[in-house]
Amino acid sequence: MSKSQRAAEPKPGDQCIDSALPQAPGRALGLTIMCLAIVFVAVWMTVQSRQQLSQKITASSSSSQQGTMTGFLDNAWFLPDEPLLGFVRIPSGPFAMGSNPALDRLAYENERWSSNRRQGSVEIDDFYIGLFEVTAAQFRAFTAEHPDLANEVAADIQGDMPVTNITWPEALAYARWLQRKLASSADTPAELRNYLAAGGQVSIPSEAEWEKAARGADGRIFPWGNTPSTEFANYGARSILPVGSKPCAECAFGLQDMSGNVWELTRSPLQAYPYNPNDDAENLSEDALWVMRGGSFVDSLGNVRAAVRGGVDPGVRNNTIGFRVVISKP
Amino acid sequence: MAISASSNNSSRNSKNSADKQTRSSMAAFKFPFALSIALIILSFVPRVQGNPILAWSFWGAAAVLLMWQAYLLFNSRNNNEERAFSILLRPQHYIQGMVQISLYVYWGYYWRPVYDHAWLILAQLLFAYTFDMLLTWSRRREYSLGFGPVPIILSINLFLWFRDDWFYMQFVMIAVGFMGKEYVRWNRDGRSSHIFNPSAFALGLFSLVLIATNTTDLTWGQEIASTLTLAPNIYTFLFLIGLVVMYFFSITLVAGMSAVTLFGLSALYSAGTGVPYFLDSEIPAAVFLGLHLLITDPSTSPRTPLGKTIFGVLYGLGVFALYTLLGAMGEPTFYDKLLVVPLLNLSVIAIDRTVRSIHSAALLNVWKEGWFGGRSNLAHMSIWIVIFASMSFLGKTDGKHQGDSLPFWEQACASDLSNACGRMLQLEATYCGDNAAWACNEIGAHYREGIITESNEELSMAYFSRGCELKFRAACLNLLDTELVLREVPHELDLRLLLREGGQNLMTLSEQELFERACEHDWAFACASTKSPESNRTQI
């Protein structure tokens, strides 16, 4: 007698119970349920993994659909509504790089040009630089096409705030993406299109490009001159401001937020002056450390001078660090 | 309640009711009810509460079990049926369970997530006992309460865990394993028996689903397969616990022959091509584990010595072939040891039939005639011990392995040895995933150069970005200029990852020892200088 028979064994005196008992569920039913469970697993896992991906894409594209922002073009990747999409031309020519402690008493040692010179003269070709720091809306337009990065930029940040918490490679990736967009769009202003066609590349500025754009050719300490002012820069403050909150007609080339608001990444490695773009590939055995410029809203006066040089690990994300872009010829 | 433990299979079918005491009344329902409640209580431990989906998985599983019990209880009362269980302790269950627990303890000591997973294993055990009992009762049979579910659950968890967000799938996987045991059966030697090893059936099926739906990343499978070697001397440990199983259950021929087959095939491949077949060892540790604990279920393997031998050889051949096949398909190769077991289980009757068709007594008895006075298993074990000792002596088990050395693969790739460049890329990708910046830059450089693999600028940029974020300066400069390929020797932190030989990262090793070890691994710069590695720059 098998176990199953024993379990359903009729009790003495219960003559009819055997025929009255329902049959145990058969193997066919069990196999069907098991197969259904396996099919469910396969379908569910496919659907769920696709849903997760589409949620990411939806989140990033909905964050890119930020409606109209005053002063920015929602049909041009939220670049500024300016004649050159917010790019300002910086003419070629020399400028004084580094600090002269006799004139700038807040100068740091790493701003000294060499052991026997306080400042150097650097000549660079003309280039274009962003009027503002890159905004959250602009960066979201980029991440909308790169869902992998969508989680890295908080969706609740106001569109005209400078983008922060991005790594150095992400800033470069944005620049490469913008290059493709500008080069392929028929709406790109002819001046920019011609410059790009002649070999111009969208990137983040070298520290020489940044410093020249910030202080002009006359070697001023701050972008607006030599006197400290909170009228033109957001520093020593509690929070970041939307880009362009401190208009500065007095600033070199009219650029805004070059001092304060957020530190701006550059494409120059942090190494001792004299500045020489041809020595970037030396000291490869050292850990990468990149120059950032301009100071941030939390910094004091000494860190928002045009010549100040900060250093940052390329993998760091920080809410005081952003970037702006340039178009220049390497 | 008296407990009667039986020491062999024969007691399973014992007609002697004194051997086991049966609890057969409605009161029997208290047991699965208590287990379901325990599962709910377990959901309130911080480990589970830390993830809402995980907690809901527990509650969902408990709810299903409770509803099933209510249905059975209702049916039992309506039909005046009784549900019963009896206690039956089988050595093949509790010995295997103890062996598996010892492995978890040892492995978890060196890879912490194992200990963190303990609560989840306990939950799976509660679920498994309840599910198995209710399934048996639904089939109107008496349930044998013992340690049966323990080796099944522990075996599944030695190979595959779903991540917390997907943990409900772990319960489904267990359910499928038990349903396979209950429903997928055949008639073998005049008795109805399950075809598949329950844990291997669930693992094999779910592996197929994960591959088909490209969702391997929902599990910890890859991490499990690669972290076993974090425990030092893991091969020796597996060998020793394997001896326990071999001694009690005579599975030496299965495990031993599969190991010998894999060792042999690896050696042949290596001799023919000049490069190792498996990247990290002669037999990957997880495969070595599988051949001791996954294919050695006596119920689903052949019973004759020759049949066991064939079974073991086929496992070795299957793993060897699947490793290449999965690699060629671009799928994770750790599935090799899982996918082959259900296929082998299906071949058991054919193997038995083949063995029976052999009429040569000499051949049939080749493994046992006269050895150790008829105690053939001890003879087999002795041979296996000699083989393992020899392999260890030759450095084919624990310790440094040729495939661990990146300079070896660089050299092999440069010499155009079979598949060496692909293996090198695979190895570099793994080390890049481990945050070795040098490896990220190297693989980015390969994708940019397009010499040993097809040029892919997008992949190249992704790897350079990762290398750059890890502060590797050459990678950052490669990001800046798409015409450039800058290379640099590994930095100190890279070496601490690259030289781990499958073990733990070498964070505490002194710089001097680190560079000496790098030199042993044929890193020329480390031999030349222990402090000032020179850069090696190339421009295209």
TrEMBL record, chain A:
Keywords: Membrane, Transmembrane, Transmembrane helix. This is Sulfatase-modifying factor enzyme-like domain-containing protein. The chain crosses the membrane at residues 28-47. The keyword Transmembrane helix applies. The keyword Coiled coil does not apply. It comes from the Bacteria. Residues 87-326 form the Sulfatase-modifying factor enzyme-like domain. Signal peptide: none annotated. It comes from SAR86 cluster bacterium. GO terms for molecular function: formylglycine-generating oxidase activity. InterPro entries: CTDL_fold, Sulfatase_Mod_Factor_Kinase, SUMF_dom, SUMF_sf. Coiled coil: none annotated.
TrEMBL record, chain B:
InterPro entries: TPR-like_helical_dom_sf. It comes from the Bacteria. SUPFAM superfamilies: HCP-like. The chain crosses the membrane at residues 27-47, 53-74, 94-111, 117-136, 143-161, 167-184, 196-214, 234-265, 307-326, 378-395. Keywords: Membrane, Transmembrane, Transmembrane helix. This is Uncharacterized protein.
